[in-house]
Amino acid sequence: MNQRQLRKAIRFANSKFENSGKQLTEKRQQVLEVLLHANKPLSAYELTDQFNKVMETPILAMSVYRILDVLESVNLVHRIKSENKFMACSHTNDGCQHTLSMLLICSSCNKVIEVNDEDDKLKSLFEQVEHTGFLPNKSQLEISGLCCQCKPKLSQN
Q1: Of 31, 108, 93, which is closest to residue 62 (Cα–Cα)?
Q2: Domain tally for the chain?
Q3: Are 9 and 67 members of one domain?
Q4: Which of 14, 32, 40, 104 is 20 to 30 Å from the Cα of 80, by its Cα?
Q5: Which secondary structure element, helix H or strand E, spans residue 153, and what is its range?
Q6: What is the CA 88 to chain-centroid distance, rounded?
Q7: At residue 88, what are phi and psi to the nearest 5 degrees?
């Protein structure tokens, strides 16, 4: 992520916080920046280590967990439940106001791809689930498999 993209993402984060009645504090912004620069999802402890390597004032893992909860509550961060890791929402640069997420998780390299629900198929799936009387807690779908880089490697073995 270059500096222009980072500034745009932070402006978007500020607007998300303002709309929710919360504040994007310096620490929250710094945690979000570490996630935006990460090339893979991070556990809270990995995030704490990365944060402490690049920021002047160290942070405790307990504080990172609280900050991640707040960032997740305003849809800037996704918690990947199957791996207990976190990633910045891939829509922080384009200002998308999505409420449903589909995360494709490579079981080989651990890369995570967030898929847009442009044709509302995911929304339709969640509506179908709700018609059964079941109320999902979070509107996120995680699918494990192999990414396009790892799939050819598997067939070579």
Answers
A1: 31
A2: 2
A3: yes
A4: 14
A5: helix 150-156
A6: 3
A7: -70, 145
